[in-house]
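check this:
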Amino acid sequence: MKISMTYCCLLALQLFSCNSNKQEKIKQEIEQDCGEERWNVKTLSDDDTAFINFDCIIQSTVYDQIKLTTPYNILDSRLVSETPVYSIDCYILEYKEEEDRDIHVIIQGINTDETMVIEIVNPECSSIKRTSRYNQLKELYEWFTRNIGIPTNSFISLDKPKLATITGIGFWDFLHGQNGMAENGREIHPVLSMKLKL
């Protein structure tokens, strides 16, 4: 039985369309799995990331961060106080995977009992793949899963807190009952690097 060239072309177009629709659906699902609230700021995909000097790292502590004054109005765009890059020595206490696929990590100060949240973004989110820091963020995510653990949707507490140095961008989050959250809403988000201290 002969099949016309027109039929073959239409079949090929239909298969291409189905495949394209499938790829688009997967892409949309990945986007939907990631965050929405101030997402561009959290993932360094906003235009104002250009104002961050990644080579100027400020030594800080958990105590320093939780004593900062919360901005009167947190906007969708990046605030000036969300441009510094900090290095903090801390203890890693707990972690879990959030709905937006970030790793939510609770850290504690070296000399105090205060805690705050730091966030490691998932490099599989499409918006993160488009950032200039993609490779760095991907390396950190993989390092964390190898050296600390693979997160689940429930908190995992370390048997023994791990002493580490973390580097990342200061960020203001809205308070909605997050475990380990500083009362002023201060986070390090995203974390850029992490190193265990022996």
